[in-house]
Amino acid sequence: MARFNGKVALVTGGGSGLGEACCRLFAQQGARVIVADRDEQRARVAAGRVSDAWVIDVGSDSDWAETARMIEARFGRLDILVNNAGFLLVADLEATSLEDFRRVNNVMAEGVFLGCKHMLPLLRKSASGAIVNMASTASHLGYHQYLAYCAAKGAVRSMTRAIAVECHVKGYPVRCNSVHPGGIETSLQREAEDRECAAQIKTAGVLPFGSNGLPQDVASLVAFLASDEARFITGAEYVIDNGATVWPVLH
Fold it and tell me: Which among 31, 71, 95, 159 is least surrounded, fewest beta carbons within 10 Å?
């Protein structure tokens, strides 16, 4: 299926986990993919399977400005932006230093702000631009042990709505939506669950409650939101967690 033929996509944190799964799917469906990651080796390995590698610190204004110049010079526009880069800090309020809080939010809140700000002029040149911001069910639930992460993902959730409205108000052909995964089988999730071994997860069929999902489950949703099939969807948030946020917990 070549739903992205001729389109240019930029995915941050594209060297591993959810980002890598998005890059692979975009490439399989015809996009020219820019795999952006802070880790050059991971970016190049992933890009070797899909398209172009680009090293970026998403919390750096100058890095984003340089990325915009590169895309403008090479492609003249951008069709899809996936703000996915992130990491996990395990610490509750009392254990979180101001430095740690700022570091987490620099990557996952400021990084999304900077990505949207610098890429919007390029996305406006597309006939149908799409931004997909990777948030989390942490923006809906009270994970006290991930205080800074929750704060950053809450900011992403709110910024997404504001950006979607701005694009409508200014008449830009750009949509902006957020995706909120629950437990997905990645190194980040294994870190959160304090385990080293990967879980065995069915690759087809309905998953039992409590199971983690697979990166491709999220990538499929991201690809839909980035496609022209989702042209009537903007400012929306999509929870993808196998029902975890709606399952009542009785005490």
Answer: 95
